[in-house]
Amino acid sequence: VLEIKCPYNGRDGTVRELATSPSSCIILQRGELRLRTDHAYYYQVQLQMLLCKKNYCDVVVWTTKDFVTLRVYKEPNMCKSMAERCQVYFERVVLPELCFNYWTNKASVDASEEEVQDTATSSDLLYCMCHKPESGKMIRCDSGSCKFKWFHFECVNLQRAPRAKKWYCVECKKLLNKV
C-alpha cells in the first residue's frame, strides 16, 4: 500500500521541521522519523493494510522543500480492535439508517418535534414483541439469536437510547443470565 501525504501546515518547511509541530503526522524518535501512532493517518493506513491484506504501507510525507518515505507495518491487534469497532458502528449506525432511515427520521423528528406516524400496510415488515411495523424510535437487541431484533422504545419502556455499548431485550437478558 502507498499513501502520500502533503500536510498543508508544514508545506513550506522541511520534513524534520514538520516533525516538531505538535499537530504533525510525524514525529522524530531517537533520530528517526516515524508516523505518529496517535494520528488519524496511522489509523487510516492500518485500515488500508487490513482491507488490502498487506503487511506494510509506505507513507510518503511531502513538503515543498523535501519528502520522506516511512514504512509502517500492520499491527494485527490494532486491526482486530478497529474491525470490532467498525462492526459495532455498522450495526448501530449504518444498518439502522439503511433499513429504517433511523438517523434521517430522527433528525426530522427532532426538528419538527413530531413522532413518525404509523403508516402500516400489509406489505410492511413487523417488528418487536407487539408485532407492529417500524414506527417512532426503535432499538436493536445485540443478541445474535433474538427472534425480534428491533423494538419500539415504547414497548421496552425507553425514553432515550441507553448509554451502554450493548442492549439486550428482556428475553435475551434472561437467556444470557442462565449461561
Automatic annotation (TrEMBL):
Species of the source:
Rhipicephalus microplus
Name it.
Putative chromatin remodeling protein
Bilayer-crossing regions: none
User: Which PANTHER family does the UniProt entry name for this protein?
Assistant: ATP-DEPENDENT DNA HELICASE, SWIM-TYPE DOMAIN-CONTAINING PROTEIN
Q: Name one GO biological process term.
A: DNA repair
Domain PHD-type, residue spans: 125-175
UniProtKB keywords: Metal-binding, Zinc, Zinc-finger
Gene Ontology molecular-function annotations: zinc ion binding
Q: Which InterPro entries match?
A: PDDEXK-like_dom_sf, Restrct_endonuc-II-like, Zinc_finger_PHD-type_CS, Znf_FYVE_PHD, Znf_PHD, Znf_PHD-finger, Znf_RING/FYVE/PHD
